[in-house]
Design a protein that fits this description.
It is a single chain. The protein is an alpha/beta fold. It is 54% helix and 14% strand. It has one domain: NAD(P)-binding Rossmann-like Domain (Rossmann fold). Strands 3-2-1-4-5-6-9 form a seven-stranded parallel beta sheet, with helices on both faces. It has a two-stranded parallel ribbon with strand order 7-8. The longest helix is centred in the middle third of the chain and has 29 residues. α3 packs across α4 and α4 packs parallel to α5. The N and C termini lie far apart (55 Å). Bound molecules: NADP nicotinamide-adenine-dinucleotide phosphate. The site of NADP nicotinamide-adenine-dinucleotide phosphate has 30 residues, from α1, β2 and α6.
């Protein structure tokens, strides 16, 4: 039986990943933050996929040393990880100079440091074994420096680029690394990101038009991962948009988002 490790599987896109891997008979190892969401996930999986083995662990994967602790946990429980999905992540809306310093630091620790450390420890283990897949959840936002979420966008630009680098490093060792770049998606994400200042509220409106469902996003990620794609977008049109955005300078894109956010603030 193959085993998948999913971070942030308690809700949103991560929870849909749990359902997709369960439907394909994978054993699920989920590390997520809130125990009540894990309890709820356990009931859902038991009801819909009664034969699937699950190991659900409450854990902050952004804490110092978390990735090594997760690996030790897996080794102690004889869980060889075939697929790692680094999905946990969050955003903080608002003018950068106004956001809470602790929230900002937690976000960067999770989105950037925690993800990189998970790739280091599990990438090394997969390389030794000569097989494995890693799916990092980046974002289309990583292509657009957006006012009101500047640090989040930069953190996801990191995920998008970092994934390309390690994909090339690990390819010769039988390890596939892919990055999923979702557009705005219905989940708890917006509520978590909520900013209290005018910019925070305006950027929330700006990014919440035309949202995709978490199910559709996870399905695209799953399909792309299994097809061996390194960079996965949710639709061909979004893939084209990602290509187009690379033709513009970051300054031009940031100024465009500033105009939109100013309009929404004035409305
Ligand atoms: N929604 C969007 O518009 C969108 C667009 C592009 C990319 N993304 C990315 O997609 C990924 C999933 O987001 P989502 O939209 O599904 O949001 P979500 O519903 O808020 O899910 C995020 C999950 O990560 C977990 N998590 C947060 N901090 C954690 C930590 N320190 N350790 C372990 N787990 C933690 C959360 O647990 P709790 O529920 O317990 O807090 C939650 O289960 C994120 O990386 C996000 O940046 C989202």
């Amino acid at each position: 039986m193959k085993t998948v490790l999913i971070t942030g599987g308690g809700s949103g896109i991560g929870r849909q990943f749990c359902r997709l891997f369960a439907a394909d008979g994978y054993r699920l190892v989920v590390f997520s933050l809130m125990q009540d969401e894990l309890d709820d996930l356990a009931l859902e999986l038991q009801r819909d996929f009664p034969s699937v083995e699950t190991v659900l662990v409450q854990k902050d994967v952004a804490q110092d040393g978390a990735a090594d602790e997760v690996l030790t946990y897996c080794e102690q429980h004889n869980l060889a990880i075939d697929v790692l999905v680094n999905n946990a992540g969050f955003c903080v809306f608002g003018d950068h100079v106004a956001v809470d310093g602790k929230r900002l630091e937690s976000m960067l620790k999770l989105n950037v440091v925690g993800l990189s450390q998970m790739c280091r420890v599990f990438g090394d283990e997969m390389k030794r074994r000569g097989s494995g897949k890693i799916l990092n959840v980046g974002s289309m936002a990583g292509y657009i420096p957006t006012v009101g979420m500047a640090a989040y966008c930069a953190s996801k630009a990191y995920v998008n680029n970092f994934s390309a680098g390690i994909a090339a490093e690990l390819a010769d060792y039988g390890v596939q690394v892919s990055v999923l770049c979702p557009p705005a998606t219905q989940s708890k994400f917006m509520a978590t990101a909520k900013g209290d200042d005018d910019t925070g509220k305006a950027v929330e409106k700006f990014v919440s038009g035309n949202m995709f469902t978490a199910e559709d996003v996870a399905k695209a990620g799953y399909k792309g991962l299994m097809a061996g794609k390194r960079r996965i977008s949710v639709t061909p049109m979004l893939r084209f948009s990602m290509f187009m955005m690379q033709l513009f300078s970051p300054d031009m894109l940031a100024n465009l988002t500033l105009k939109q956010v100013k309009k929404l603030k004035a409305a």
